[in-house]
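ok trying again, last paste got cut off:
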Amino acid sequence: MKKRIKKQMKKQYMPAVIVCVLILLLAVIGIGAHVVMKYIPTKERMNLTEFYGQPGEGEAVVVLGTDIMQERAVTSGDQFYLPLDMVDSYLNQRYYWDSANQQILYATPSELQKYPASTDGSGDVWLKDGAVYLSLAFVQKYTDMDIYTYENPSRIVIQHEFTGVNVASVQKNSCIRFRGGIKSPILTDVNKGDTVIYMQALEEWVQVSTMDGYIGYIQKEDISDPETKDFERDFQREEYSYLTMDAKVNIGWHQVTSKDANAYLADTIANVSGMNVISPTWFYLQDTAGNIVSIASSDYVNLAHERGLKVWGLIDNFTADVSTTDTLSQLSSRQNIISQLIQAAAGVGLDGINVDFESLSEDAGPHFLEFLRELSIECHKNNLVLSVDNPVPEDFTSHYDRKEQGLVVDYVIIMGYDEHYVGSEAGSVASLPWVEKGVQDTLAEVSAQRTVLAIPFYTRLWKTTGGALTSEAIGMDEAQQTLVDYGAEAVWDGSVGQNYATFESSDGSTYQIWLEDASSIAEKVKLISKYNLAGVAEWKLGFENSSIWQTISDNLSSTAQ
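nice, full thing came through this time. structure:
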């Protein structure tokens, strides 16, 4: 009986054990599956059309460095064409569209090249549906870049930055994933020793870009720490050469308003010392066809040369009813201006041209730069120094593009004045901190060795009467005489680097003046040696005190403090 009971119990126990084992096995399988799902990297490959986007018929995706561009390239046969706007914004801004003549202009340092547009997808320039496209080969002719082309989807990968690039080396065979995570699909494989562009580090992953245009994430442990690298390149381009002076430049602007006024040069420079360049205001725009008015004088130049002065004739755009944009946007007008300037320079023996185009609108910016490129070619052919006057950098003057100017012209001049002006609130014409910031901001874009700081020989006498504010520009001697006349005393204000005075007149008007004198000029000129600038310029001759020239000379050659 007992044996029968044991057998029955054993029979009942065995199924229970099996059930428990099966449950345990399922649990282990479930845990294993969870581990696999959570910790084993996926081998799924990313759909590249989904990643890059599907280009339309006759289009190609463009990968520019570490960015997939929204704008597409177009194709004609086996040729790829890039949108001009893309080339201008990211690769090379010197391709200039001459809409009137339906051609691209490209100014090298020595000549102006012309490339007519086709409408059938042939040649270097394609005018398609009103948009301008440049062939890859044409862009590569003047631009240092590496190009890779691929299918499925059709795409162009362009690498164009080769200096100061953050890179890392792949430490072992790995892969780049769409997102930062082992379950994210794979974009491409990378091998030990490959170089990738290091973009952004996360906790365990790093966003990188491969040289062939895959932008994704790799595990941090699979790559080295980032380093900055300059890639060796064998791209050859024609470089600009510059006509510069061995000594520090000291330019005095001479405001000449008529041919007869040229005769007063001797009087103007009678008490001048240390100045080695004079720039008379001789040329201005007459109409949008590019005709200019010239009051240049060979007698003036001959006398200046006798006194040891170089002469840089100034051209301005101050004619009120002549649009600078309309003028400079036409090839024929630009070339007309340039030919007349070169002819006048040769006729009177000029040593240089000074361009003083002020208050440029944003839409004039590209045309102004093209004018400088074209003018630079002819100036250098004729051994003429080319200088350009610029306002102190502000956000609203970024279209002056001082960086491009600095590559094209011989000297970039900072007009370190007009901080406060007619219509503004009362204040200094050129406070020291404002001027110094203007220097620093300019040097972020332009070589110090070809940057000139212009300082004011004038100040503004501010007058407040019954709440109405007016001002007038006065020279140094007149400013000092005004203080004497009103019995006012100026006090040094270190915050602006100037002597300041305020006083009242008998009619109840309040006057304020921030003086330009030996003390303020000395502080400004010291910036030239502090930042190793090319020299100084002064606006304008006739506003100075005769003793100020020694102050300039003493501080122009001084050691930075």
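cool. The chain has a mean pLDDT of 94. Residues 172 and 192 are 4 Å apart (CA to CA).
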